[in-house]
Amino acid sequence: MMGGTSAPGWMTRGTLPGSMMGSSTDMGQVMGKLFANAPGPRVSASDAVNLGNRVPAGATIDRAANRIAFSTTRVSFAVLAGPAGGPDETFRVGGLVNPTIDVPVGAEVSVQLIDADPDTAHGLVVTTSGGASFPMPMMSAAPAFSGAAVWFLGDPTSVGMHTAPLSFTASTAGAYTYLCPVPGHAQKDMSGTFMVSS
């Protein structure tokens, strides 16, 4: 069953079934609750804020252009997904909201994704497609590079905020999109440009 007039209501923006899912129609909220206690590394809220505001080593920040440019081929930075104190459904890198990130071709990229949203799952994928305009980018936004995706992380708990690494080689020059693959989030502008420059 894939949809259409015979699809159950929860598939077409109705209430999701089951007591574990509550009455939410937001898949990010449902996924966040379901996976809040999933195993994996965590960071404290204060560490997350520091990481999201830290200027990455080897990077130049242009606040006016909302751009972070790396001059080294060893690139490492943290991405806060859905952080407090900023626009909802956004990423924060180096203190900027949804910045353009520019790396040299061949760069070895290490990203620490942190879900800082208190009640919604978020992920991160670097993709070649225009997946930001689709309601379900996980169906259309394949990673541009091997290792360039974390599909989603659950809600923070008293133990801390979920974090996961992405590691990939930016092997081909071009303009890419980074986005949150959770349904509806990229459509709400939870995306940015990832440039690989030769």
What does this structure look like?
The protein is mainly β. The N and C termini lie far apart (46 Å). It has a single domain (26-197), classed as Immunoglobulin-like (Sandwich), CATH 2.60.40.420. 41% of the residues are buried. It has helices at residues 27-34, 45-53, and strands at residues 42-43, 59-62, 67-70, 74-81, 91-93, 96-97, 100-104, 107-115, 122-127, 149-153, 161-170, 174-179, 191-197. The strands form two sheets. The protein has a seven-stranded mixed beta sheet. A six-stranded mixed beta sheet has the order 1-11-8-4-5-6, with helices on one face. A hairpin with a 4-residue loop joins strand 2 and strand 3 (67-70). Mean pLDDT is 86; it is low at 1-21. It has two helices and 13 strands.
In short:
The protein has 198 residues and is mainly β.
CATH superfamily, by name, is Cupredoxins -  blue copper proteins
| Major beta sheet, strand line-up | 2-3-7-13-12-9-10
CATH architecture field = Sandwich
Low-confidence spans: 1-21
- At CATH level 3, the topology is Immunoglobulin-like
**Helices and strands, in N-to-C order?**
HEHEEEEEEEEEEEE
- CATH top level is Mainly Beta
Task: Tell me the span between the first and last alpha carbons.
Answer: 46 Å
Task: Produce the secondary structure layout.
Elements: H1 27-34, E1 42-43, H2 45-53, E2 59-62, E3 67-70, E4 74-81, E5 91-93, E6 96-97, E7 100-104, E8 107-115, E9 122-127, E10 149-153, E11 161-170, E12 174-179, E13 191-197
Parallel strand pairs: 3-7, 4-8, 7-13
Antiparallel strand pairs: 1-11, 2-3, 4-5, 5-6, 8-11, 9-10, 9-12, 12-13
